[in-house]
Design a protein that fits this description.
The protein is mainly beta and about 500 residues long. The protein has three helices and 34 strands.
């Protein structure tokens, strides 16, 4: 409640600031809407003038406005009216770099800023990235060109804001970045509302990245991304990504729907993920990781629906840096419905999930810690997962009598498919304590050689109202190994 109230107050204050601000037509500063004139200098002059004269909105009306890197400054809002398109230059040399990232729109240490309206920011990332490849081959730009694609840091994002306060992104469409779409790094009081993301033109096209921020709301938006849809990161051990409210969004991706922790140097605290929909998604609907020495705590997921998604839930503690073990506790996931397909859920994307993960059996939801770093206090309440079943025993690597052969893989990149083959189809839980199942229904559409739930080195946990539906099979639905203190209730 405190977080929601803070978000509403922030939204009101930012809206008031916008309503009271003065409007300036972009054409006053010589900005051309013909789609061919490079407007970088003219747009920057407009921003600088408004910033130096009390603040206001730089308004773009119908037209195509070609630009390279511009810098948004305090008390300035870019207003994109319906039909206005900020178009990224196709010349990679027209973009600047800050904090090791390249972007079309930067804001560094600024306050009371925004990008609003019904217009579009079009990065034309596929073309920019291929032009960048050409410059690398010619020796103009130095880059290792891994997998024959440039580093994501030198491909332009549409938006990169760092160290900013009171940010509002509202109503706009963000299209085709060269790298991540929009990144908010070490910012505070960020409102992202009613935006449309079409971000699947190239590799690493995340929908939104919230990095080490405090007090952020992402609401009422649509994400269609080649990479993770809504992604939280913690790049610094000196920061915590906290007080984040993710509500009423629709997410489609060829990676993960809502994800955080693949950069987890600091931590994540007080995250609320309420009433969201994930579909046609290759990896997990939700995935939380603590693999770089940071922590994940006090996370609530409620009313999440997932359709045609490769995995429902993946929670993971790892140790990618020796001696830096993650921590995870106090996770609540309730009212979740998921349908897992037998086929590849992101078929048809420009950049599909990796086929090298195939063939394999469809993975279970997983909660996996380490022998000396348990995941603790996870509640799963009112969960319904439909699994395709039909597991092929020829792919099996580990049986129930040899669970010790499942590799720990604590230094590996965390993804639901990282273990390849697991001996469960519903849930695989390992190195955990305080796991509560309350009204969990698991349905397997076809007979599977695996058991529904495997608990390995799990302690002080409970199963209440568990229902397992699997056709033509009579077997114990839960297998326990090296496990103590498990209570079961009807």
């Amino acid at each position: 409640m405190k977080l929601i109230t803070l978000s509403l107050i922030t939204a009101f204050l930012l809206s008031t600031q916008i309503l009271l601000s003065k409007d300036y037509n972009a054409s006053l500063f010589g900005v051309k809407s013909n789609g061919t004139t490079l407007n970088t200098t003219s747009i920057q002059k407009g921003i600088d003038f408004i910033h130096e004269n009390g603040g206001g909105r730089l308004v773009f009306y119908v037209g195509r406005y070609l630009t390279g890197t511009i810098y948004l400054k305090s008390d300035v809002t870019i207003q994109l009216e319906e039909g206005a398109i900020l178009v990224g230059s196709l010349n990679p040399l027209d973009y600047g770099q800050n904090f090791n990232w390249t972007a079309m729109i930067f804001a560094l240490g600024q306050n009371n800023i925004g990008i609003t309206g019904k217009g579009v920011i079009d990065g034309r990332g596929f073309e920019v990235a291929n032009n960048l490849v050409d410059l690398i081959h010619k020796g103009v730009i130095n880059d290792p060109l891994k997998y024959d694609r440039p580093s994501e840091t030198i491909r332009p994002q549409n938006i990169y804001f760092r160290g900013c306060r009171n940010v509002r992104i509202e109503g706009i469409t963000l299209r085709d970045p060269g790298s991540w779409n929009q990144q908010y790094d070490q910012c505070r009081n960020v409102v992202i509302d009613r935006i449309m993301i079409d971000s699947k033109s190239y590799w690493n096209n995340d929908g939104v990245d919230i990095v080490d921020c405090d007090s952020v709301s992402v609401t009422n938006s649509y994400f269609d991304a080649a990479d993770d849809g809504i992604c939280l990161k913690s790049n610094s051990a000196d920061f915590v990504c906290q007080n984040v409210y993710i509500h009423n969004n629709t997410v489609r991706t060829s990676a993960n729907g809502i994800k955080f922790g693949t950069a987890s140097y600091g931590g994540f605290r007080n995250i609320r993920i309420i009433r969201n929909f994930v579909f046609d998604t290759y990896r997990s609907a939700i995935t939380f990781s603590a693999v770089d020495g940071g922590f994940v705590e006090d996370v609530i997921v409620d009313s999440l629906r997932s359709e045609n998604t490769g995995n429902a839930i993946f929670l993971r503690i790892g140790e990618r840096r020796e001696g830096k073990k993650g921590k995870m506790n106090n996770i609540s996931i309730s009212n979740l419905y998921a349908e897992i397909p037998a086929s590849k859920p992101d078929a048809g994307y420009n950049f599909e999930g990796p086929v090298e993960d195939m063939p394999r059996n469809i993975s279970p939801s997983s909660i996996v810690g380490m022998p000396d770093a348990f995941i603790e206090n996870v509640t799963l309440k009112n969960i319904e997962i439909h699994h395709p079943g039909g597991g092929n025993p020829a792919f099996a690597k580990v049986g129930l009598d040899e669970l010790g052969k499942v590799p720990e893989m604590q230094a590996s990149y965390p993804e639901f498919s990282m273990f390849r083959e697991l001996p469960a189809w519903g849930f695989y839980i390992r190195h955990a304590r305080g796991i509560t199942f309350d009204n969990v229904v698991l349905t397997c559409e076809r007979k599977d050689y695996r058991t529904a739930i495997v608990m390995d080195d799990v302690h002080d946990s409970s199963l209440k109202g568990l229902k397992v539906n699997e056709p033509g099979v009579k077997k114990v639905p839960v297998f326990l190994n090296a496990t103590t203190g498990i209570k079961t209730y009807k």
